Amino acid sequence: MFFFNENSWMTGAIVFILRYILVAGFAYFLFYIWKKKKLSHLKIQQKLPETKQVRSEIIFSILTLLIYSGSVSIMLFWHKKGITKIYLDINEYGFFYLISSIIVMIFLHDTYFYWTHKLMHKSRWLYKFHKIHHQSKNPTPWAAFSFHPVEAIISLGIIPLIIFGIPTHPLALMGFITYMTLYNVLAHLGYEVFSKKFINHPIGKWQNTATSHNLHHQIGGNFNLGFYFSIWDRVMGTYKENVR
């Protein structure tokens, strides 16, 4: 695998940053420039964010992704030591397991994200770092990884849990990280792309939406803390209904 070589940090940095620019950049161009008027009815907060906010989101996101890329070298070191559950032959567990493991990673990450996010809001010391992300009261797609370096390191904690906890193929890990990037951009889009019919559906209501996460950014508070789903928020009583 191309990640697993002596240039792993540089490779990781290029992949992470390019993926962020392509996904967040396309979403920003589509919703905030090209189709801004046509899609204005989907805008959650009608006021557009200031340029300095967008600039800050990009700077902190790139810093976060550089930190993330450093984890590739650490993961490679652990893999060479033979202490992880990383495997390189897909046939060892089969294609069905490969896909299933991505789903498991998503649910593991949602749980990890909820509880670490809750901790950062409960702890005054940790919130000093988390408030960088909350500077985006009206987030754009560029805010997806706009973290203080300390929060970036905390968010990375899901990777050791995965590679030490379940058999992990690099392709599955890359698939998970790509999905995470896409959903992170969607959550910070500032536009609601899910219909009310879907949101109110018995299945759709468990899905975290741009509206629910935008509300978390807009007025702050210890609610709507989930990532992909609203499961933990609903179970723990920290879910605030969408205002749209």
Helix content: 55-70%
Shape, please? Answer: globular
Multimerization state: single chain
Distance between the termini: 45 Å
Structural classification: mainly alpha
- Strand tally: 0
Layout of helices and strands:
Blueprint (H helix, E strand, L loop, with lengths): L7 H27 L16 H31 L13 H28 L1 H7 L18 H7 L2 H8 L4 H18 L8 H4 L10 H10 L11 H6 L8
What would a concise description of this structure say?
By secondary structure, the protein is mainly α. The chain is built from ten helices and no strands.
Describe what you observe in this structure.
The protein is mostly helical and 244 residues long. The chain is built from ten helices and no strands. Helix 1 runs antiparallel to helix 2, helix 3 crosses helix 4 and helix 3 crosses helix 7. The longest helix is centred in the N-terminal third of the chain and has 31 residues. The model has no long low-confidence stretch (mean pLDDT 94).
What attributes characterize this protein structure?
244 residues; 0% strand; single chain; mainly alpha; 60% helix
